[in-house]
Design the sequence.
């Protein structure tokens, strides 16, 4: 089974927990990791990593530096990810559990990239992942969230932006990345608000 077929099958099986029908294309992945420092040993947390399209670009940028933690809830996709990237720490669990564990270990991320679906970013129970990512962020760190451009103005998508703005002082939306299926944008958030 190819990685794309595995990803698409996971989406069709559980569309509430898998954000897209296809993995993100490289131009969108590069936009999502733009805040990643080019020097030093940054810590990167890759949430909703799927089969590794964003992970590929992070690894190219890191070139063996720093620490890269990828979180994927789907066991099949996490297995694919671990086989493709043996140097990446793969956590097969939900994003909330993973981030809480990292916080308990004292980890601070220079970049958290989220490919998580609306269920985790604008949930009906009010348990957004963004406050946890704000706590996880290093002082100069950033959080990026991928989103399909065509649904950006829907009420749920607007709630994602409100949740980010409640947690971070600065939230910027990228230009539409047309070289993705479907076209998408990246929210870039910095400077977590203090509780």
Sequence:
């Amino acid at each position: 089974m190819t990685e794309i077929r595995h990803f698409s099958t996971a989406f069709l099986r559980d569309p509430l927990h898998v954000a897209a029908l296809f993995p993100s294309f490289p131009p969108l992945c590069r936009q999502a990791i733009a805040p990643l420092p080019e020097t030093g040993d940054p810590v990167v947390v890759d949430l909703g990593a799927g089969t590794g399209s964003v992970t590929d670009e992070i690894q190219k940028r890191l070139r063996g530096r720093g620490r890269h933690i990828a979180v994927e809830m789907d066991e099949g996709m996490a297995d694919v990810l671990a086989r493709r990237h043996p140097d990446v720490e793969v956590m097969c669990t939900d994003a909330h559990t993973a981030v809480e564990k990292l916080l308990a270990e004292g980890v601070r991320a220079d970049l958290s990239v989220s490919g998580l679906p609306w269920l985790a970013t604008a949930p009906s129970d009010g348990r957004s992942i963004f406050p946890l990512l704000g706590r996880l962020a290093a002082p100069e760190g950033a959080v990026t969230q991928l989103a399909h451009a065509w649904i950006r103005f829907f009420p749920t998508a607007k709630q994602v932006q409100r949740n980010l703005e409640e947690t971070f002082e600065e939230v910027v939306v990228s230009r539409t990345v047309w070289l993705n299926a479907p076209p998408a944008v990246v929210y870039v958030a910095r400077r977590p608000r203090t509780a």
The mean pLDDT is 86. The longest strand covers residues 137-148. The two ends are 46 Å apart (CA to CA). Helices lie at 3-13, 26-32, 53-62, 75-84, 95-104, 118-121, 130-136, 155-167.
